[in-house]
Amino acid sequence: VISHHRLGSSTPMSASVMRLALLPAFVHAFGTVGTIEPCKLVEPASTQIDFEEFTRASWFVQEQEVTPLQPLDQFFCVVATYKLEGKVVQVAGPPFGTGAPFDGTVISAYNQGNTGSVDGAKITQLGTELCVRDLEPEGNRLAVAPCFLPNSLAGPYWPVVLKADKEGRYTAMAVINGQPTVPKSDGCGSPSESLGLFILTRDRIAPPELVKEIKAELVALGISVAKLLPVTTEGCAFEGFDLKPSNETVIN
């Protein structure tokens, strides 16, 4: 998502419906509070990402944190569709195609949702395209920013939990936009209005036990889930959305 620009269908450079794409959040670690231990170092999931599988079907957000770019009234029918389209981005330097091209994997990101209700106005990123870049393939260190910005201005996009079925098809993931630095009772969270945490699944409506399992894994990694809130997916028609259905997902 684009920090400094507010989400909305009428804004030429609006932010995406969720902070799965954001510019770098420059945050400073807070000291420990009371008897809470210092924050654990968060790393992306160790399993090598299969980007063909990652982009095979859309991802439905089940829970996420509120951010300045996505208030609570936009927690309806939030979905992310990723595509391997061969987009070209820069490594560094000024924006708009003047720097050296990045020779790694680039994924196009399309984020959509509704505002106010499942029947509310559709919201999406407008006026810009978002690109996820695989900056460190061996460590799954992804970064995301509008495609016209170089990698040096992209923010972290770390799948810290990545689940697959016995056939190797991805079923769920948790994504965080950088290292959490503020100690909480159940782990560490982000400074106010700086980062984002998301739980996404391939199924439109995820089993509650799956979401609970992912949250437990996040806590075990030292990531606080205290600010996660549910996203409504029941009753969503996804009319006009750019979706890639999976075998398990039923689209109305």
Q: What's the quick description here?
A:
By secondary structure, the protein is mainly beta. Helix content is 7%, strand content 27%.
What percent of residues adopt helix (DSSP H or I)?
A: under 10%
Strand order, largest beta sheet: 1-2-3-5-6-7-8-11
H/E element sequence: HEEEEEEEEEEEHE
| C-alpha termini separation | 27 Å
Overall mean confidence score, pLDDT: 84
Class of secondary structure makeup? mainly beta
Query: What count of structural domains?
Result: 1
> Could you name the CATH homologous superfamily?
Calycin beta-barrel core domain
Largest sheet: 8 strands, antiparallel, barrel
Give a written overview of the molecule.
This protein is mainly beta. The protein has one domain: Calycin beta-barrel core domain (Lipocalin, Beta Barrel), CATH 2.40.128.20. The chain is 7% helix and 27% strand. The strands form two sheets. Strands 1-2-3-5-6-7-8-11 form an eight-stranded antiparallel barrel. Strands 9-10 form a two-stranded antiparallel ribbon. Strand 6 and strand 7 form a beta hairpin. The longest helix is centred in the C-terminal third of the chain and has 13 residues, at 208-220. The protein is globular and about 45 Å long.
